[in-house]
Please model this.
Amino acid sequence: LFSLSIKNMRLSQLEVGETGIVKEFTDLEMSVKLMEMGCLPGEQITVSRIAPLGDPIAIHVSGYQLSLRRKEASTIILQ
Amino acid sequence: VDADLKVALVGNPNTGKSTLFNVLTGLNQKIGNFPGVTVDKKTGFCDLPDGRRAEIIDLPGTYSLYPKSRDESIVFSVLADKANPLRPDLVVVILDASNLKRNLLLYTQVADLKLPVIVALNMMDLAKKSGITIDVNAFAQKLGVPVVPISARKIEGIDQLKSAISYANKIALQEDTIDVESLAPQLITQISREIEVENPYYALQLAHQHETLKFLSPVQSNRIEELEQEFSFHSQKAQATETIARYSFINDLLYDTVKKNETAQEENISNKIDKILTHRVFGFVIFFAILLFIFQSIFAWSAYPMELIADFFVWAQTSLHAVLPAGPLVSLVVDGVLGGLSGVMVFIPQIAILFGFISILEDTGYMSRVTFMMDRLMRKVGLNGKSVVPLIGGFACAVPSIMSTRTIENWKDRMITIMVTPLVTCSARLPIYTLLIALVVPNRNIWWIFNLQGLVLTCMYLFSLVSAVTVAFVMKFLLKSRERGYFIMELPVYRMPRWKNVGQDMYNRAKAFVLQAGKVIVAVSVILWVLASYGPGNRFERIEQKYKQPQYTQHMNADDLRHAVASEKLENSYAGVLGHTIEPVIRPLGFDWKIGIALITSFAAREVFVGTMATIYSVEGDAEKMESVQQKMHTAKRPDGQPVFTVAVAFSLMMFYAFAMQCASTMAVVYRETKSWRWPVSQFVYMTGLAYIVSFATYHLLR
Model:
């Protein structure tokens, strides 16, 4: 579940409007917090907007809107 | 105390929990503190249909029983600790029906603690609008608990909820959600046996949280730590596995009971609003326009009520002096206490308006967008997007704002926010600025619409933000931290503000302010009055004797004579001696010993300044001729005949108040929040030092 992979897309690489499905996380501590907020493996995530200064980003997940920093989004690997 | 039943409200943030609490308890509520911690505890009473009375306790909103902040850690302590006097007989879990999945995580955790539970399914109307249909009966059956659909905003389903509360079982009947024991089988068994807990999930939570739980003894906590080592328990891994298991239960549950129509309408409206409000350019323009509007309104709307309050006190003082016989006690009450009180009461309108706006910004969901927009900028200066809320709140009062920094998870970000928040122009500085600006800035318009006085005031506000940010930037390099910061935050759907909540908020905050500040001010006024009315040794007698000599009585009329006596007495009183003692230190800033007295008393609370000025000038002045403080200060003269309050002195004084740490309540709250005197003391030193330097520079530049 927690492995580092280079091939796969990260959440931080998605543009506004693009969608991906969570595959795994690169960071255990962050993953615990993200999963509590509904970002689980298998869950669909859509990037809904980016803050005016380019960071953080807002995503649509589990039926609501969540904001997180790019650095945090980069710990989420998509399928 | 006389409740038959204790009911706790538990739920995620933004689920309408506080609205439900208000609906259930009406005005019958009390705000206090949880024992030992400074977390707001809201309790109230609710009459049930069977004639019993329930005490409702509103627990802080949280996404999970694993706390990310101190507020959130209260929830588990209250629910789990059997010795806790607040431990409820029944838990009402509030779920946002339009956002069930994430809301259910907390439900499953609470349910596994095996307390009697009822589910209140809030925002059913919103869910329906966004195309969600919930089979409530099937849902209730799967969970094994009563489920009551409600709309707290529209006050629908409340009677049903009340009867569900009164008919609720005394024992927990809910279905298990996950196989808790399989998460750490031996550890749970061992903890259950040694610490004597029956519930396996409670035992597991103890394993996770034992380091921070106050109700565990150090022996128990150490034993749990040993057991964790023995069974090689890894808290984060166990938590990850648990969360995945819970969501898998939730997904199965929702698959069977909830149907979703894909065209989500409400969502789209929120999205459209976000496109404008968080727009690259308009986002910031709108934010600053809102801030400007708020400040303009604070002054425009409060002017009239403030004048009424001030007039009332002048009237009360004048008529009391007319009715009551002159004497030290009457003088103490009328000049000391009433004079000081009028200083606080005058700001009720401004505080109420400011808190009203902040409440609206939070209620609508706009505040979290501001956080979202500002995070990057704030991070550059060593703060955090979430620091915006305390900083804006700082315009009202630093005390609740410093308490609100608890939402900032990162230690360094939080400390910097706490350190700079008192620099923001709080409402206690407002009367000082208003008074001094009115003294030296002409009241006329420039460029047709901008009032010059208002403009200077706006500059003082902007200046305070700039100084807060600058200090934060410097502290970014001074503070060391190993901890990493994160910023995972819900952006709630935009909602109309609940006007009742806003009104209640305004009322509660204004009341708390008057009670808290009022106590300090009355105390300070009394002490000050005593200090100003009595002097060391026989100085007063000597003065009286001196003016009885023919050289005075023959050459001065009665009024002048009385004035001379009063003036010399004040100078020789304890307060005068105190003022004279510090005069050499403050003279470079342009202040005389009378201002010195006001500065000293202001270290209790800034708002004391106006009251002190009033007391000092009324002790000296004529009791029968009550004038406003402003008039008195305007006519005040130095011994050489020059006016005391020149432009240079007024601005130097404003700068001093802008920077100096003159608020005992803030220092106390910083101590409580940081649990160390290091922080309030260094805050006091840096702020007051800055105040001296900036005042000195201002005075010498403008002179």
